[in-house]
Amino acid sequence: MHRSLKWLAVLTTLGMFLVLLGGALVTKTDSGLGCGNEWPLCHGQIIPENITIETVIELSHRVVSGGVGLLLAALSIVAWRTIGYKRETKFLVILSLFFLIAQALIGAAAVVWGQSDFVLALHFGISLISFAAVLLLTLLIFEIDQKFDASTVVIDKKLKWHTIGVTLYSYIVVYTGALVRHTNASLTCPDWPFCVNANPFMSFNMYQGIQMGHRLAAGLIFLWILYIAAMAIRNYKHQRVIYWGWIIALTLVSLQVLSGAAVVLTGLNLYVALAHAFFISCLFGLLCYFILLISRSKLNEGSVSKVS
């Protein structure tokens, strides 16, 4: 039973990841109206007759989202019955289902009635929360074998609050990045890292402000994670999950910044843009896992080096 549950959890997590990247693909290829202003039908049909690449992308995203929704429903029922005794299980099940439904409703509303760019920018972030919840649920399921006990992890207050802070802040970074794409501000500053061609006193318009605001937010999260990673490397050498976890986080945020620069410098290359979405998704999932560890670990009030 446990083995089947693990496979179901992994499959659902991968499916949620495909939903996440599929939504990014829809946005980056401007395929949101690939099925016209109709949902769940596509141009009034289940399978439309006149198929364009935009139609294929939008319809595929809907089909994958529906299939993953069924997988998530099955996983939620089995996990609730099997590991419902774990305190986080029911919360994560409800969270993943709620935000998956919210993502679908916002997507449907955008197709049928249209939405402002500032509302549409929420779509990726909502999908990200659902993905992170499913990822954490999967990790809980894999703890059935008790090969890792999070209660053995000791985290001091300083690292705890930095972790919580940078995780919450990462959501702001995600939103500003989505806003850049939805407002078509990606190439309003074709230079990187600064908007060299813009006169900061005369011609700095809203779109350049959105673009540069995202770059500033991304720069700050890079510096913040660099600082936390240095802290982890210095004080958590004997706690491999924390030590290597923050090294991976630093690697992911570095790749995120580099891919963001490459998006601009390559003129919105689709593969680079999807890589950009991939790295932030992995980073957010990892940060959420750190939060899970904090909630289950022993909190050391003093310096962690005293107990390492």
TrEMBL record:
Gene Ontology cellular component list: plasma membrane
TM region(s), chain numbering: 63-80, 92-114, 120-142, 163-180, 212-230, 242-265, 271-294
Pathway: Porphyrin-containing compound metabolism; heme A biosynthesis; heme A from heme O: step 1/1
Residues involved in heme binding: 214, 276
UniProt-annotated location(s): Cell membrane; Membrane
Superkingdom to which the source organism belongs: Bacteria
Cofactor(s), names only, from the UniProt record: heme b
Group of enzyme by EC: oxidoreductase
Alphabetized Pfam families for the sequence: COX15-CtaA (PF02628)
Keywords: Cell membrane, Disulfide bond, Heme biosynthesis, Iron, Membrane, Metal-binding, Oxidoreductase, Transmembrane, Transmembrane helix
Enzyme Commission number(s): 1.17.99.9
InterPro entries: COX15/CtaA_fam (IPR003780), COX15/CtaA_HemeA_synthase (IPR050450), HemeA_Synthase_type1 (IPR023755)
Keyword Cell division among UniProt keywords: no
Known catalytic reactions: Fe(II)-heme o + 2 A + H2O = Fe(II)-heme a + 2 AH2
Single GO biological process annotation from the record: heme A biosynthetic process
Bilayer disposition of the protein: Multi-pass membrane protein
Molecular function per GO: heme A synthase activity; metal ion binding
Function noted in UniProt: Catalyzes the conversion of heme O to heme A by two successive hydroxylations of the methyl group at C8. The first hydroxylation forms heme I, the second hydroxylation results in an unstable dihydroxymethyl group, which spontaneously dehydrates, resulting in the formyl group of heme A.
Family note: Belongs to the COX15/CtaA family. Type 1 subfamily.
Subunit organization: Interacts with CtaB.
Listed PANTHER family: HEME A SYNTHASE (PTHR35457:SF1)
Protein name, as recorded: Heme A synthase
